[in-house]
Amino acid sequence: MDLRGLIGRWPVIRQLRGEDGRGSAARSARTDALRPRTAEADTVARSVCPYCAVGCGQLVYAKDGRVTQIEGDPDSPISRGRLCPKGAASKQLVTHPGRQTTVLYRRPYGTEWESLDLATAMDMIADRVMATRRETWQETVDGKVVRRTLGLASLGGATLDNEENYLMKKLYTALGAIQVENQARI
Question: Which residues, including other chains, have CB under 8 Å from residue 134's CB and lie 6 or more apart?
């Protein structure tokens, strides 16, 4: 290509010729090749940001079962498509290479962590809940029927919605716990 043709392709020269900067003068082959990060997704799921009690709506884009992008949901009446910096970076919760993907357990008085499969960990939790309930159950107190345990309590997180808090309350009430609270702010 000759020097005159090369100079004529510069955006400043094209702008000086009368082409405005919003059109072809501001475009390049690389710009034309760019595609949205969401274009390749084969599924989109609606979700809620896990960080605080606001409950901003999110759209989770995935391809081949792997999360590729998380963006604000414009249909959310709470956030109307906006996310704070933490919410905008929430993709890292599931894709960061340092994410813990196994259950770690440190035995009482132990100094090292060991990996457990999820089924074993869930069985251990269930066994401990039932043992605590059995050991701390009170049928009566001062002759009054109470049918409770003071050995179990629940504090729900601020990101739980009303439905999740309702289910937790039902579970812990069924177990006999009376100390059930949540941090719901919405």
Answer: none
CB 26 within 8 A of CB 34: no
Q: How far is CA 161 from the centre of its chain?
A: 14
- Is the pTM of the predicted complex or chain greater than 0.85? no
pLDDT tens for each residue of the chain, 186 residues long: 577 777 766 777 767 776 555 666 567 788 888 888 888 889 999 998 888 778 899 999 999 988 999 999 999 998 999 999 998 999 988 888 888 888 999 999 999 999 999 999 999 999 999 999 999 999 999 999 999 999 999 988 777 777 888 899 999 999 999 998 887 665
Question: What is the set of domains in the chain, with CATH numbers?
Answer: 3-33 (no CATH), 43-95 (3.30.200.210), 103-182 (no CATH)
**Contacts for 166 with CB less than 8 Å, ≥ 6 apart:** none
Report in angstroms the alpha-carbon separations of 49 from 43, 66, 70, 84, 169.
Answer: 18, 18, 10, 10, 23
What letter would DSSP give residue 91? Answer: T
Q: How far is CA 170 from CA 57, 157, 164, 182, in A?
A: 26, 16, 10, 13
Dihedral in degrees, nearest 10, Cα atoms 102, 106, 107, 112: 110
